[in-house]
Amino acid sequence: VASEISDLAGQTRSATSDINALIENIAKALEEVAESVGSLLESNQRQNACVNDTVHNFERIQEGVDGIFRLTDHLKGATDAVITANAAIGGSIESVTAITEEITASATDILEGNRQNLKSIDGIAGIMSGLNSNAEELKKMRTEQ
């Protein structure tokens, strides 16, 4: 019986040694798991920071796009105003052109009237010259009588 107890004690020591080795291996494995979990947590935190940065960057991009749309709307309004002003200027130019044509036609009529007046004045001058000659002749005749 003592030999069996001794064998059992040896087996118990051996089993205890094996159990201690297993516990140490499990403890090491748990430490490695804990380190891996810590690394994963750090990696997840970095990824979350990157995601947050990406969200922030997309928000800034959206703000920029919204600003571009506002500027585009403003430019469209300014362009429409320029188009309207150009149309008004075109209408004014047409009016000025029509008025200029009327003034030119009137000036042409006035020039023709002045030419006719000059002809009439030349005719009157001729008549006056003739009257002067007749008056001179009459004076001579009177003095001779």
What would you note in describing this structure?
The chain has 145 residues and is mostly helical. It contains one helix and no strands. The longest helix is centred in the middle third of the chain and has 143 residues, at 2-144. The radius of gyration is 61 Å and the shape is rod-shaped.
The arrangement of helices and strands along the chain is H
Number of strands: 0
Report the structural category.
mainly alpha
Question: Helicity range of the residues?
Answer: over 70%
What key phrases describe this protein's structure?
145 residues, mainly alpha, rod-shaped, single chain, 1 helix
What's the arrangement of secondary structure elements?
Layout: H1 2-144
Report a brief summary of the structure.
By secondary structure, the protein is an all-alpha fold.
